[in-house]
Amino acid sequence: MITDCFDDAVVLNMSIALERVCRDISMELRKHEDRRFVADRILACAHSGKTRLDDFIAAGRAAVDELFPQTGQAA
Prior knowledge:
Layout: H1 2-5, H2 8-23, H3 32-47, H4 53-67
Helix pairs in contact: 2-3, 2-4, 3-4
């Protein structure tokens, strides 16, 4: 479980980052599969040792760019 790997502050920052990234882009990204992709990238960021909110937001935005390389958001 994620809470077994990270302290509460890191988990909270991951959650905040996911919500901010998904809120700031098109409604299309709110599909479960897309949110999960972004969440997985944020989790990978945490596992790499980068645990600041800004790190998570950057990882989430990079995931969005990967999902939607043309515009950075869903069409």
